[in-house]
Amino acid sequence: MHESMPASIRRTRETMQKATGLMHKSLRLLGAGVHTAAPGKDYPLHAHTSWELVYYVRGRITCPVGEETYAATPGTVLLTPPSTWHAEQSRTGYANRFLQVDAATTHPWPRLCYDDADHTLGRVFDALVRENNDDLRALLLSELDLRLRRAAAAPPTTPAEQLVIEAERIFEERFASGLRIATVAADLGISQSGLRAAFTRLRGTSPQAALQAVRLRHALSHIRNSTLPLQAIADLTGYHSVSHLTRHIKAATGSPPGALRSTEFALEQ
To answer: Residue limits of the HTH araC/xylS-type domain (predicted)?
Structure first.
């Protein structure tokens, strides 16, 4: 097999294996899919002969796994070893991506980890669920293995930190849609007061202020780098009206949008 492989590719693969020590031929994807459940629709206690890796996309779920119980929210990854009894108790209705992976019971994965603000793990899970090519699936599984091992070695992320990270991701994705903090809290399966407490402790600000900071950043970018009318900018950034946009811009910068735009264009000339 190696004789027919181009020397450059063989050397690259061998170098990666020696440098990381993390690529294992024993990993094999047995199945992948999507599961959704309505509120109160629990998944009963069960076990598998392989690892089960679950990425939670939506909802708030209580997950007994062996002798432990975990609270899963969007961005949580639960990794259950073979022959370990586990279940899902649906508190809000939920959706997940799941993978069945053939690997040693002692494979050094964490039992629980959280996605980052860029949704890196979620993207890999989604790709593995969609992909049908065996070679590409093997590459994606190797990437996931690397990232999960890195997560196992990293300092633990608390549930509160993960909630804040997930809320910030929602702000970035949906700031232009008239997003409300009540909606974000409901999507995360937490009360508004709980979300506010997590932001205050971890970010020193409120969720509403964090959302407005995202809108303001995008609005200022449009004002300074485009000739879009103010009404269009307000529509694109989640402000109710030009006056609403103007009020926030002036409060943050001391100048109305028109003055900022005039200054920017004057500097360019």
So the answer is: 165-263
Three-state DSSP at 115 gives coil
CA dihedral sign, ordered 133, 134, 135, 136: positive
pLDDT digits (tens, 9 = 90+) for 174-207: 899 889 999 999 888 889 999 999 999 999 999 9
pLDDT digits (tens, 9 = 90+) for 221-266: 999 899 899 999 999 999 989 999 999 999 999 998 888 886 554 4
Which residues on adjacent β-strands are paired with residue 46? Answer: 86
Residue 113's nearest CA partner among 141, 140, 171, 73 is 73
CA distance 171 to 199: 13
- Domains of the chain with CATH codes: 21-153 (2.60.120.280), 160-268 (1.10.10.60)
